[in-house]
Design goal:
There is one protein chain. The chain is 42% helix and 21% strand. By secondary structure, it is of the alpha/beta class. It has two domains: 32-112 and 221-254, Periplasmic binding protein-like II (D-Maltodextrin-Binding Protein, domain 2, 3-Layer(aba) Sandwich), CATH 3.40.190.10; 115-216, 3-Layer(aba) Sandwich (D-Maltodextrin-Binding Protein, domain 2), CATH 3.40.190. Helix 2 (43-56) runs antiparallel to helix 9 and helix 3 (69-77) runs parallel beside helix 4. It comes from Sporosarcina oncorhynchi. This is Molybdate ABC transporter substrate-binding protein. Belongs to the bacterial solute-binding protein ModA family. InterPro entries: ModA (IPR005950), ModA/WtpA (IPR050682), YvgL-like_PBP2 (IPR041879).
């Protein structure tokens, strides 16, 4: 009888330990870390949104890979880990879409922007329009690399429309992303720079001289989508929904987005 009771107790202990182990594993599974590849111009707004979102979702932590949309698209193409792609241009999102790397059913345009001409706060320039730029009167103009940086692509479209792209070639200082363009002007390394209105909005070292006519360049929209090989489909979708919610849109507006 005693042997039988001892056997039953051992079995019961194994069951308890087994259940406890399963519980630990379940908790681990519930913990989600989202890796988001995002355009550099979204840095401040997304950092704010991350804090709000994580405070409301105890089991989710968010990490960002900020950079130019073109480079991010290439990284995703090369297999870099990412759950969500937030691009500053439709062209770069179209690229990864054409390669079958995103879940196209999740694609959504979540904000917009404008293109502005900026100068350092100490600048005495009185330019009031992109049309008034005279290559002979400036030493350096900071722009994004057109081939990989959306703001550079939009900038090139504007200057080509105005017949200024070729005359400005010897003056151009190329930035690897829009934040580098902003930094060039903040530090006085360039007389002028072209960035998004949201980038100028967050800087206290530059002033906006002019805003581009939207008809001079492609529409500046920010599409987001879930990367196809994500292991966190539901969490990724929930964060995308958060971006287009009233709370998310309010934050984007607070950082100068349209």
């Amino acid at each position: 009888m005693k042997i039988k009771q001892l056997f039953i107790m051992v079995i019961a202990m194994v069951i308890v330990v087994g259940c406890s182990g399963n519980g630990v594993k379940k908790t681990d599974v519930d913990e989600v870390e989202l890796m988001i590849s995002a355009a550099a111009s979204l840095t401040d707004a997304l950092t704010d949104l991350k804090n709000t979102y994580e405070a409301e979702h105890d089991n989710v932590s968010i990490s960002f890979n900020f950079g130019s949309s073109g480079k991010l698209a290439t990284q995703i193409e090369q297999g870099a880990p990412s759950d969500i792609f937030l691009s500053a241009s439709s062209k770069d999102m179209d690229k990864v879409d054409s390669l079958g790397l995103i879940d196209k059913s999740t694609r959504v345009d979540f904000t917009k922007n404008a293109l502005v001409l900026i100068a350092n706060n100490d600048s005495q320039m009185t330019i009031r329009s992109f049309k008034e730029i005279d290559p002979a009167t400036i030493s350096h103009l900071a722009v994004g690399v057109p081939e990989s940086v959306p703001v550079g692509r939009y900038t090139k479209e504007v200057f080509e429309h105005l017949g200024l792209w070729e005359p400005l070639q010897s003056k151009l200082v190329m930035g690897s992303d829009v934040r580098q363009v902003l930094t060039h002007v903040e530090m006085g390394n360039a007389d002028l720079g072209v960035v998004y209105s949201s980038d100028a909005f967050i800087s206290d070292k530059v002033k906006v001289l002019a805003e581009s006519d939207p008809a001079w360049h492609a529409q500046i929209v920010y599409p987001g989508a879930i990367v196809k090989n994500t292991n966190h489909q539901q969490a990724a979708q929930d964060f995308l929904d958060f971006l287009i919610s009233e709370k998310g849109q309010t934050v984007f507006e607070e950082y100068g987005f349209k």
